[in-house]
Amino acid sequence: MNKAIHFVDFTEGLRLIRMDRNKTWIIMEDADSHHSTKERRCHCFRKIINIKKSIIMSNKTVKKGYESLMAAYRKSVEDNDGWSEEECKSSLDWVLNRAEQYAKHCHVTRDDILAVWEEDRSYCWRNYYQESNQPDLEKGNHHVMTLNEWEEEGKCRFGDDQLDWKFKCPACGHIQSMREFKEAGLEPHLAYLHCASRHGLGGREDCKWTIGGLLRVGGQYVIDGKYCPRLVFEFADN
Question: Which of 107, 139, 192, 226 has the most CB atoms lying inside 10 A of its own CB?
Fold first, then answer.
């Protein structure tokens, strides 16, 4: 339990405690809080109130995502729009389980994932939630990273300039950089999506591998801020 608690001190006498797991915030006064000046205490309480307001809004947004999904599920069941209740329940369970999986890899909660997905969804929930949009991250032994983790890994390996980052084609093993693609007049980001041989820049001549094909073979998943996974080439060794 202690690992889930963070202390944020605003004054000598006032303290805010956050419980990460359920996002419950508790305000405490230390025994010697009466020594704080009135002005300091008022300033501190204003900070706490503002933080609590932002947390309440955040929690409402997170809760809204789950409620939006459940409302869509109930509507499908009530409307009897071509899917049986059993099919709808199976789809709902799939979404909740997939959100749990993504939450584990992104270090957030299931409801955090659902809040973002539901905000992004603009059409039928059963069409939005499917393997092509939320693929199984644990199928195929792909390495999974958040976008921030991926960017930090790239900087650690090759420096701050992304044009110097190098990637390895999962099919032929060719090492290529974003700078090579840019200097050839191509979009730099293709360096982690296409084998250079596809553009006559090197690699095995008959490879022409693209990670955007039908087969999800090789590469790693990078999950962006919308919890949308992108399959990209692995980084080359330093």
Answer: 192
User: Residue written as tokens 């195929």?
Assistant: 140
Q: What is the pLDDT of residue 216?
A: 60
Using CB atoms within 10 Å of the CB of residue 111, give its burial: 0 to 12 exposed, 13 to 18 middle, 19+ buried: buried
Q: Which helix (H) or strand (E) holds 168?
A: strand 166-168
- DSSP at 194: B
Give the pair of three-digit tokens for residue 232: 């990209």
- Quote the CA–CA distance of 65 and 151 in Å, as a whole number: 28
CA 232 vs. chain centroid, Å, equals: 15
Indicate whether 101 pLDDT > 50: yes
* pLDDT value, residue 142: 85
What is the tens place of the pLDDT at every residue in 85-98? Answer: 999 999 999 999 99
pTM (2 d.p.): 0.69
Q: Which two tokens stand for residue 120?
A: 């992004």
Strand pairing report for 143-146 and 229-232: unpaired
Q: Which residues are 26's β-sheet partners? A: 17
Write phi, then psi, for 26 (nearest 5 degrees). Answer: -125, 130
Least confident of 28-37, 46-55, 146-155: 28-37
Using alpha carbons, select from 230, 174, 232 the residue that is nearest to residue 198: 174
Residue with tokens 């929690």: 59
Helix, strand, coil distribution of the chain in percent, nearest 5? 50, 15, 35
